[in-house]
Amino acid sequence: MSFTIRDLRRFKERGERFIMLTAYDFPTARILDEAGVPVILVGDSLAQNVLGYSTTLPVTMDEMLHHTRAVARGATNALIVGDMPFMSYHASIEDGIRNAGRFLKEGGAHAVKLEGPLVELAAALVDRGIPVMGHLGLTPQSVHAMGGYRVQGKTEEEARRLLDEAQAMDKSGIFSLVLEGVPESLAAKITEAVAAPTIGIGAGPPCDAQVLVLTDLLGLGFGSYPKFAKPYLDLRGEITEAIQTFRDEVVSGAFPDDAHSYH
Description:
Layout: H1 5-14, E1 18-22, H2 26-34, E2 39-42, H3 46-49, H4 61-74, E3 79-83, H5 93-105, E4 111-113, H6 119-127, E5 132-137, H7 143-146, H8 156-172, E6 176-180, H9 184-193, E7 198-201, E8 209-212, H10 214-217, H11 235-252
Parallel strand pairs: 1-2, 1-8, 2-3, 3-4, 4-5, 5-6, 6-7, 7-8
Helix pairs in contact: 2-4, 5-6, 6-8, 8-9
């Protein structure tokens, strides 16, 4: 089946949890699509996980569109969300509208994601037929302003502000809301207070859905993983082992054998 933003609302109404995963290329998107993943995010985490940057800030619109097109070619059933990169929507609402439109027109995405309580921009996009996923809490594009990757909403004042921002974004017409790096008690309050499904990452179990960066889920990361990430495989180890086995077979002459040669 092909998933739409209405399906996500129905999931919440039925109390049915769902997942979102990141993808950055055609083969990965195809695997996720065949596995029945309802929402694929072409995240600006592309910056670290594919392009080798230390933060999400350097990734450009052209880079995001390049990878979004690849994902769109691979996934025919999932709802594809393009992550608006840093400074593609911060200077003006007009910039935001133009660049969000590029994700749908040039990238093949079905929706876009915005970081922060940008109510006016979100409403302007929704009015123009561009579905919007919100993102509150720990917003990586504001890492320098936040003083690092810190849990947000820990004080009563911060929690109240985030709840107000979530409700304001909900009224703007967003179809879902990512909550990142917030206490689970606050995530529960926000999830209860908004009509849009909440998608948690480091926000505990109360959210309507959960998202992970695919490289974290597969164990492809370098160094330590965030507290909220759970590697379900050690794919990095398995890839290393496969490469070493190939090397050993070539050195020994075991590969290519008769079955892998033309006659």
